[in-house]
């Protein structure tokens, strides 16, 4: 699911049902990133200008009720065999 603030793709949220990983991407530009683990289930992606460009939530269904917390329909990635 994409959110747009000014007609551009401002944020993308994806959820993989097989791996139970929710990813929020704030900046779609290709760039080098550094992963900073906040705890065992949350990882921040820090971009070239030291801004957060993404957040990865592992074991997402245990941290969030996706149907209630997110007022959107999340893009569910196809399951890999």
Question: In words, what does this structure look like?
Answer:
The protein is 10% helix and 44% strand. It is mainly beta. The model is unreliable at 1-7 (pLDDT under 50). The protein has one domain (2-77). It is globular.
Can you tell me the overall shape? globular
End-to-end span in angstroms? 23 Å
Percentage of β-strand residues: 35-45%
Return the domain count: 1
* Helical content class: under 10%
Structural class: mainly beta
Low-confidence stretches: 1-7
Tell me about the largest β-sheet.
7 strands, mixed
The SSE order reads: EEEEEEHHE
The protein's oligomeric status is: single chain
Notable characteristics:
44% strand; disordered N terminus; mainly beta; 81 residues; seven-stranded mixed β-sheet
Topology:
Blueprint: E1 2-4, E2 9-16, E3 21-25, E4 34-39, E5 42-46, E6 52-57, H1 60-63, H2 66-69, E7 75-77
Describe the structure concisely.
The protein is mostly beta strands and 81 residues long. Helix content is 10%, strand content 44%.
